[in-house]
Amino acid sequence: MERVQELHDAPLAPLTTFRLGGPATRLLTATTDAEVIDAVREADATGTPLLIIGGGSNLVIGDAGFTGTALRIATKGFELDGTRLELAAGEVWTDAVARTVEAGLAGIECLAGIPGSAGATPIQNVGAYGQEVSATITEVIAYDRAAGETVTLANAECAFSYRHSRFKAEPDRYVVLRVRFELEDAGGLSAPVKYPETARTLGVEAGDRVPAATARETVLKLRAGKGMVLDPEDHDTWSAGSFFTNPILTDEEFAAFHARVAERLGPDAKAPAFPAGEGLTKTSAAWLIDKAGFTKGYGSGPARISTKHTLALTNRGEATTEDLLTLAREVVAGVRDAFGVTLVNEPVTVGVRL
Ligand SMILES: Cc1cc2nc3c(=O)[nH]c(=O)nc-3n(C[C@H](O)[C@H](O)[C@H](O)COP(=O)(O)OP(=O)(O)OC[C@H]3O[C@@H](n4cnc5c(N)ncnc54)[C@H](O)[C@@H]3O)c2cc1C
């Protein structure tokens, strides 16, 4: 095995944006694809549980920590060839976005400010402000632990959907090594602006293009106002971003939900509703949480709802994972009681469940 950095009984909390979770039996940091593959092969050959960590911005690790090998992906690689981009899994995503915008390219400019690594972006099909990586990813190169070899998965093979993918569906199978994107050269302009809030802030119509750099800066500003850009000084950002996904309801579920909304909030009340495919409607988790009575800043303990965004649960500094889960469970139960909808957590839980 190549030489990787190795620590024992290593604290994992500092590797997560929640700053939560106990230690790992062993922590390896791999800086090349070969090191990643060797570490994964060794764990699999010895039947050792394996936890892959990128930027730790979508992870809730239990207070008891992780018994097994935690493998931090710290590989580097940013290759831009015309409109084709290939990123090593360990590249810092938001920095890579900035570089593509500097190069005058469009396609991922509205995904600026999302913390974490490039290699994690396909896992939950990262998205924000009208863009998702599934729109620009052409291929994902991954080590397939079932086959014991490196594979190249085309976009269609990644089974991308809203905050989901084949990688999330089969969590112990693929270790992403590299991600390839096809961006657009629109002469320095952004992709058509899709998200109403971004269009409004930019003073344009949805579908218009603006300079890619302006789109990126606008998104960063909007995100910062919601505590969605990491800032070590600001506890509102000691989070995993949105803690819950937006529920997607069947027509029947939506009708029942609509009736509950009218019952609770009056006949004129309208829940947000967005088409989400044949017979499906997406509603807003933030709206549900707020209307169920969990407003910004909710909580009296060390884990609270962000003061800037209802959807972010945060560590105010002294929280444990159990504190966070207690708050999360309270929110889930409150929303279910109020509206009959069960929220699902977006971050990946390790050694704990909601
Ligand atoms: C302030 C804040 C704002 C956020 N805003 C957004 C947002 O707007 N949109 C959005 O979609 N998300 C958002 N997130 C969530 C998070 O940043 C993304 O999901 C990000 O892609 C996670 O990357 P990471 O490297 O930190 O992954 P980690 O947290 O390290 O890991 C997350 C999961 O991916 C797995 N994983 C990581 N790397 C690999 C790899 N190379 N191969 C295989 N599996 C891997 C891990 O095992 C784990 O299961 C936000 C988080 C924070 C803290």
The CATH topology of the largest domain turns out to be Uridine Diphospho-n-acetylenolpyruvylglucosamine Reductase, domain 3
* Biggest sheet record: 5 strands, antiparallel
What topology, given as strand order, has the largest sheet?
6-7-12-10-11
Order of helices and strands: EEHEEEEEHEEEEHEHHEHEEHEEHE
Number of helices: 8
Give the strand content: 15-25%
- Our Rg estimate from Cα atoms comes to 21 Å
Q: Kindly give the count of domains.
A: 3
Mean pLDDT: 96
State the gist of this model.
It holds the Pfam family MurB_C. This protein is α+β, with helices and mostly antiparallel strands and about 350 residues long.
Description:
The protein has 354 residues and is of the alpha+beta class. The protein has three domains: 5-73, Uridine Diphospho-n-acetylenolpyruvylglucosamine Reductase, domain 2 (2-Layer Sandwich), CATH 3.30.43; 78-225, Uridine Diphospho-n-acetylenolpyruvylglucosamine Reductase, domain 3, CATH 3.30.465; 235-350, UDP-N-acetylenolpyruvoylglucosamine reductase, C-terminal domain (Uridine Diphospho-n-acetylenolpyruvylglucosamine Reductase, domain 1), CATH 3.90.78. The chain is 25% helix and 23% strand. It is built from eight helices and 18 strands. The strands form six sheets. It has a five-stranded antiparallel beta sheet. A four-stranded mixed beta sheet has the order 1-2-5-3, with helices on one face. The protein is globular, with a radius of gyration of 21 Å. The two termini are 37 Å apart. The mean pLDDT is 96. It is an enzyme of class 1 (oxidoreductase). Its EC number is 1.3.1.98. Pathway: Cell wall biogenesis; peptidoglycan biosynthesis. Its cofactor is FAD. GO terms for molecular function: FAD binding; UDP-N-acetylmuramate dehydrogenase activity.
